[in-house]
Amino acid sequence: MSQQLQSYLSGAWVTGSGAGTPLVNPTTEETLASASSEGLDLGAALAHARETGGPALRAMTFAERGAALKALSAAIHEHREELIELGIANAGNTRGDAKFDIDGATGTLAAYAHFAKSMPEGRGYLSDGAAIQLGRTPHFQGQHVYVPRHGVAVHINAFNFPAWGMMEKAACALLAGMPIFEKPGTPTAMMAERIARIIVDSGILPEGAFSFLVGGAGDLLDHVGPQDCVAFTGSSGTARILRAHAAFVERGARLNVEADSLNAAVLAPDVEDDADVYDMFLREVSREMTQKAGQKCTAVRRILVPEAMIGEVGEALVEAIARVKVGDPADKETRMGPLTNASQLASVHEGLEKLESVAEVLCGGRESPFDKGAFQMPTLLRASAGDAAPVHADEVFGPVATLLPYSGDAGEAACLVAMGGGSLVSSLYSDDRAWATELALGLAPWSGRVYMGASKISEHGMGSGLVLPSMTHGGPGRAGGGEELGAERGMQFYMQRCAVQGFKTIIEGSFTA
User: Fold this and answer.
1) Which residues, at least 6 apart from 242, have a Cβ–Cβ distance to it below 8 Å?
2) Domain range holding 63?
3) Which of 27, 136, 219, 302 sees the fewest Cβ atoms within 10 Å?
């Protein structure tokens, strides 16, 4: 008998009515659980969070909130092995992929606990910059301050990172002083629900500071008000629907979006095939294609290579990808498991069909050697850069990337990357400082982050796909236009910046850091 997942609302575990949405094991196709939000009072749950959780969190100092985050990180880490097994069963993660997700969650919580140590003691708001003299004399001054918003932080997360996606948003909001309302992606919600139970059972957070909803969002946004914040990670199609909702258009709630991203990796013309940066490029690109079965918002989708090298690079990448063992993620030898479910597999096949109309398949494709399960073999294609519109327009959310030739000119590379309409991360690999600088500045307007690989850091680079708590994560244009993390920057979405003006002694004594 499959498990029925529960939501935690208004301080109690509750079960939605109806059959709910089935959650499956994408390797065996076995139904593991179901999730439903039908019949649940979401308006009351948001009110409980605002009226009970909000005041309790705002009464805490940054140090106290940071201590809570540190304790949450430890509590979740204690259950690491159990959570890994859930990732293998419900998400098709290999053990390494599950650890990447879970350790990202606990690591982000711990990082924000550390950030809290540098924040003002004995208070729960932040100063923004220095005080400013506003008149002819220094007696009249102004100071910008950040204070917690008196609402709820509603987090609508994607299915691909049920642990990390949930906790990276939670860490920022809780430290800022806002209660959180977590809505995980339904297909992989088993891990998210287990983490929710760990949080509730720990008793670390005050009553009302944490709410959790499984199943559909229902009428949740109808109850979102002007002090609330909604952070969404998912498809650009869903983002368009959200942006048009009255919660944002009429009531002025805040919305942060992380959506599709056709991330690109660019190899420089100065790179020789015996250079350390060349090996770094092959290693990192093949990993970013196949980690989490390519179901990462930061995965490499387009690979720009100087035209003279594209044949050689294509062969080397095909060889690297062939070494990735695909199969049952419960097998310790497996390095890539299935996609999350049959629906995702169908979506990848649809996208691949579009790419195949303009590109040659070098390895992989739509055929699978497996009798069952949502398996997609790693697929590398090759196209002509300027005549491959689908390559720059359609994100195939799986282990799929396309090789594109270019002349080697940094300006041309920047223009080709920009055809994707905005990315979470763009990466370049070069030991030529001038070329790398020119391209980085050319990529920056279209990228939330630029990762620069070089021989000197070939053994130390973490790869373009790793989202670090101290650096911002988000991107312009089709990537959603949002921004998360970045140490204190990640808290600002959940706080109101206010300009306080008055007598110097009061301003300096009360509001200046």
Assistant:
1) 221, 230, 232, 248, 255, 257
2) 3-259+482-510
3) 136
Residue 120 DSSP symbol? P
Shared-domain flag, residues 167 and 229: yes
Q: Is residue 238 part of a domain?
A: yes
What span, in angstroms and rounded, lies between the C-alpha atoms of 43 and 449?
A: 37
Co-location of 167 and 300 in the same domain: no
Answer yes or no: is 407 within a domain.
Answer: yes
pLDDT exceeds 70 at position 343: yes
* pLDDT at residue 2 tops 80: no
Q: Can you tell me the distance from the alpha carbon of 501 to that of 275, in angstroms, rounded to the nearest whole number? A: 58
Radius of gyration of the chain from its Cα atoms, rounded to whole angstroms: 24
Does 255 share its domain with 268? no
* Distance of alpha carbon 493 from alpha carbon 113, whole angstroms: 18
- Provide the CATH number for the domain around residue 11: 3.40.605.10
* Percent composition of the chain: helix, strand, coil (DSSP 3-state, to 5): 40, 20, 35
Question: In 3D, which of 344, 329, 342 has the Cα closest to residue 373?
Answer: 342
Q: With cut-offs at 50, 70 and 90, classify the pLDDT of residue 384.
A: confident
Q: Are residues 219 and 276 in the same domain?
A: no
Tokens of 304: 């720009």
Q: How many domains does the chain have?
A: 2
Which residues are tagged catalytic?
258, 297
Q: What is the pLDDT of residue 381?
A: 97
Task: Say what the pLDDT of residue 10 is.
Answer: 97
Element (H, E) at 131: strand 126-133
Type of residue numbered 419: M
Bridge partner list, 376: none
